[in-house]
Amino acid sequence: MELFRFFISIFFILSCTSSVDVQVYSVDRSIYVESSSDGTGIRITNINLQTSETIDLYAVKRAENGEFESNLSVSWELEGDIGQLLILSGGKSAKFEAQSTGSGKIFIRKNGVIIKSVDVAVSEFVNTVDSVNMTNITSQSFDITVVTKATLSASDSAKLYYCNHSKIPDCDPRQWYEIDMSKNGKNFEASSPSFKFPDDPKDEIKVLTSVTLNSGVSEQTSIVRLDGPAQIYRSIGINNTSALASRTSSGTNEALITDSVIVFDNPLAGNIGIGDAIVIDHSVTAGFEEIFFIRKRISANQFLLNDLNGAELETDYAEILNWEIYRAYSRVTDTNTLDENTGIPAEVRNFDTSQDAVNDNKAWHFAFYADGAWSGSGKNNISGWNLFGDNFLRFFVPFLSTHVGVSQRHSGKWDGTKAMISWVGSGNYQWPFMQRGAGKNAVRVEGFQFQIDDGGYANIYAFRVDDYNMADGAYAYFHHNIIRGVGVGGGGFSFVMGNADIKGYAFNNIAYDLGGTGFALEGTNSVASHNTSFRNDWNFLGYSGSGTASYLGNISHSSSTYEFRSSVSGVLSDYNISEDTTAPGANSYDNTTLGEIDFVDLTGGSEDLCITTSSLAYMLGPKMIEESDPFKIYYDAAGNLRRPSDTVFPLGACVRN
User: Fold this and answer.
1) Separation between Cα atoms, residue 215 and residue 147, nearest integer Å
2) How far is CA 73 from CA 23, 76, 111, 116, 350, in A?
3) Is residue 90 classed as helix, strand or coil in its secondary structure?
4) What are the b/e assignments for 498-521, b being 16+ CB within 10 Å?
5) How confident is the model at residue 15 (pLDDT cuts 50, 70, 90)?
6) How far is CA 258 from CA 261, 304, 629, in A?
7) Element of type H or E holding 83
8) Nearest Cα to 330, choosing from 366, 356, 281?
9) Pairing of strands 393-396, 442-446
């Protein structure tokens, strides 16, 4: 290889007694300063560092065509008082540590001649965030570490903000919860609280870290997906066995699936959503080959899919010949036997085969759509299931934009177009939902409208819970429901047990015109919170066999017999409103009038039992949304979002703004 050398000697005769030293340079076009010793690094022609930062340098020889030849030994030299240059590996490399601000040069010499120079500029060090890491993610918690480039100073600080992105789509973490992060060397560290209902396994938690370094603020948003059991979503449309939408090979609205997301050419109807079954034909063989289930609505023509076991899909489908969409089930009672919708093509229909949620490590969510009212009588006892803890059974009405395009849930007032259950007694002790017996340890019922006619019989309830053969730690949640009585009326939520280690939570429900009890709970761990009970025989009943339940933030008025029937003074009982003097709690309101409560509408047949903003109940009451509370209320019965920072947190089930 030809070697070019240029020698420049410059002599300045300033006077007969003065001169400047001569520096001799030689530009060697075969030798480079690089970032790696093996030729895989990048060429370095200038360096910009902050004080305390370092950089490793290597002398690399290359052939004329640029191919790596060797990491050779040279002499290294630093010009300028800006740091320290440590010579390594017999001159094959050097480490420069920036120590003072300013500029200088790094030379390499061969045979005493400078063959390469690198300009160096050093600025004052400013600590910055290097990474944000999530670790120890469980079904209920996670740890977070913010790593910076240098040891933290006394003035540095960081906060963690977070919110449940699954339950509150597009939430702003700053409006929800915050934690001061601790300092450990170069790191900020924090652990989330142990999440509780309604924060579920597999929920997405939106996290914002706000870090203050050198008086500057750096923010980063991340999504943490909690661990836990597989989440199984299935839809129910009463007596609806027909396809909700379809496309044949000769039709329109083509679709494809990429990364578990199905995209349609055209929007689908607003009542298609979470839990619905999508069957596809992607081969020339006759019939449908696959069945998937909607896990999340992204938009009117985009949906996130899961397979039958609740996992994201492993295969993309670029060419789908035919597709059809169905409700997964056509009757609630069929969930006791896992008899799927008979309208689904037989070749893909037998998709649910086990009710052992505990050993399968699954949680089951049945989404009830407003295709028609479930009209029934008798007893529907939840049967066949093995449930406990995070392996629960949930019956709910979709209402979020990530569930469905058009809410299927009421808005705090009876609405005949929304999801409804109509039950008529044909004997004593009957109900559409009964939780009782071994294995029935974790059940949730939420967002329904129950119309109850006891038919002249006793103990007809919307949801009955009996702890017979249930395990310690079992629970029942009943929330955001409306229960109204017609005819003689019946009862709302009845939670009866002899075991204080089993808990019932009833919150944000409205019960009225029932010939029985609106809400009855028992047990020191049970809570009735922010319910409205009106014109029932007994509005609130507290059993005391296994300890008294707590009643918090409830409104009771116009009962026939009892507003708050004895033994409702659990440890949390407070801020209740009653027509008489039985409201439990030091901050409760007795002897209130309907004018003071100010319900929106008491007209028979069109009742709206949300309060107005002029109500006595429109106050900063107990929030039931802090991490220290037994559970958290994100929405009232009318669908109004509630936040920890709210300055008003009304009593009762809902407010009509």
Assistant:
1) 17
2) 21, 9, 11, 13, 72
3) helix
4) ebbbbbbbbbbbbbbbbbbbbbbb
5) very low
6) 5, 10, 41
7) strand 83-88
8) 366
9) parallel
- Supply the DSSP string of 443-506, one letter for each residue: EEEES-EEEEE-TT-S-BEEEEEE-TTPPTT-EEEEES-EEEE-TT--EEEEEE-S-TTSEEEE
Q: Which two tokens stand for residue 31?
A: 């030798």
pLDDT band at 266; cut points 50, 70, 90 = very high
Q: How far lies 343's CA from each of 25, 242, 325, in Å? A: 87, 6, 10
User: Are residues 433 and 464 in contact, defined by beta-carbon separation less than 8 angstroms?
Assistant: yes
Nearest CA to 306 out of 362, 356, 370 is that of 362
Sheet holding 129-135, edge to edge: 129-135, 143-148, 187-191, 182-184
Distance CA 331, CA 241 (A): 10
SS (H, E, C) 421-432: EEEECCCCCEEE
Q: Residues near 66 by Cβ (< 8 Å), separated by ≥ 6?
A: none
| Rg of the chain in Å (alpha carbons) | 35
Give residue 636's Cα distance to chain centre: 18
Length of the chain as a residue count? 657
CA–CA gap between residue 379 and residue 465 (Å, rounded): 13
Least confident of 14-18, 62-66, 123-127, 433-437: 14-18
Please report which confidence band the pLDDT of residue 179 belongs to, taking 50, 70 and 90 as the band edges: very high
The percent of the chain in helix, strand and coil, each rounded to the nearest 5, is: 5, 45, 55
Query: What b/e sequence results for 232-252 when a residue is b if at least 16 CB atoms lie within 10 Å of its CB, and e otherwise?
Result: bbbbbbbebeebbbebeeeee
Type and span of the H or E element at 358: helix 357-360
DSSP class of 595 = H
Contacts of 492 (CB under 8 A, 6+ apart): 450, 452, 461, 462, 463, 483, 509, 511, 514, 516, 517, 518, 519, 533, 536
Rounded to whole angstroms, the Cα distance separating 585 from 587 reads: 6
